[in-house]
Amino acid sequence: QVQLVESGGGLVQAGGSLRLSCAAAGSIFNIYAMGWYRQTPGKQRELVAIISSGGSTNYADSVKGRFTISRDNAGRTVTLQMNGLKPEDTAVYYCYCSAQVPAGARWGQGTQVTVSS
């Protein structure tokens, strides 16, 4: 059984901070990358930030300088620190994990982030 356990999210005022965490649980091995995507109604899911097993990171231009992605030493938990939040950051945030088969690519259930103006 493979599961991505998400925590964090919620409601915050513009300029505030939130932290999202995601832990890979179960039979998932050789994780290649973990990260976060987000989606708003009527729009495609978009990459927010991702970190590879080697520690390389990639961010959406809209969050560079405000969001920081990190992972634990075991590489099974990823954290997204979100500072300077804006109303346009409001979305459902999904944890993503890419690992060796048979686990493959997995998604979390999603957590709501709402930023009020």
Compact summary:
The protein has 117 residues and is mostly beta strands.
Structure overview:
Strands 2, 4, 5, 6, 9, 10 and 11 form a seven-stranded mixed sheet that branches. Strands 1-3-8-7 form a four-stranded antiparallel sheet, with no helix packed on it. It has strands spanning 2-8, 10-13, 18-26, 31-39, 46-52, 57-59, 67-71, 77-82, 91-99, 105-107, 111-116. The chain has no helices and eleven strands. β9 (91-99) and β10 (105-107) form a beta hairpin. The termini are far apart. It is globular, with a radius of gyration of 14 Å. Helix content is 0%, strand content 58%. The protein is mainly β.
**Shape call:** globular
Secondary-structure-derived class: mainly beta
Low-confidence stretches: none
Q: Helix and strand succession?
A: EEEEEEEEEEE
**Total DSSP E strands:** 11
| First-residue to last-residue Cα separation | 40 Å
Strand content: over 45%
| Helical stretch tally | 0
Range of helix content: under 10%
Instruction: Round the mean pLDDT to the nearest integer and report it.
Output: 95
- Round the Cα radius of gyration to an integer and report it: 14 Å
Largest sheet: 7 strands, mixed
What attributes does this structure have?
7-stranded mixed β-sheet, 4-stranded antiparallel β-sheet, mainly beta, 0% helix, 58% strand, 117 residues
